[in-house]
Amino acid sequence: MFATHPEEGKTISIDPYELICGKQIRGSWGGSSNPDRDIPKFAKLYLQGKLPLDKLITKRYRLDDINQALDDLEQGRVGRPLIEIDPTVGDIT
Asked: 64 vs 40, 47, 56, CA distance in Å?
C-alpha cells in the first residue's frame, strides 16, 4: 500500500516479480469517495453519535492563522488541524 505521492517529477518503482506474485497497482483520487453518497451518510452517523469526528481534530485555528496551522502540521505539532472560517457556524464542541 502506498498512501501518498512522490514529489513532483519523482517516480515509484516496483519489482515485476511482485506483480507476478499477485500484487496489484491501483490508484485513487480522494479515496475514491462519492461526496453525494458519503457526506449524508457520515453526517447521519455523526448525528447518531456513531462517528466521533471531534476526536480527529487536534487543534482549531482561525482562518487568519492558516499559515500557523500549516506550519504546525508540517512540523508535527498537530495531527489534524481544523481551519474555522466562521467559528460561530457548526460549533461541535
From this structure: 29, 29, 22
Predicted pLDDT at 90: 62
Phi, psi (degrees; rounded to nearest 5) at 15: -70, 125
Q: How many domains does the chain have?
A: 1
With beta carbons less than 8 A apart as the criterion, state whether 2 and 18 touch.
no
| Three cell numbers written together for 14 | 516496483
In a domain, 45, yes or no: yes
User: Does 48 reside within a domain?
Assistant: yes
**Model pLDDT for residues 20-51, shown as the tens digit of each residue:** 999 888 877 777 788 899 999 999 999 999 99
Q: How far apart are CA 83 and CA 62, in angstroms?
A: 6
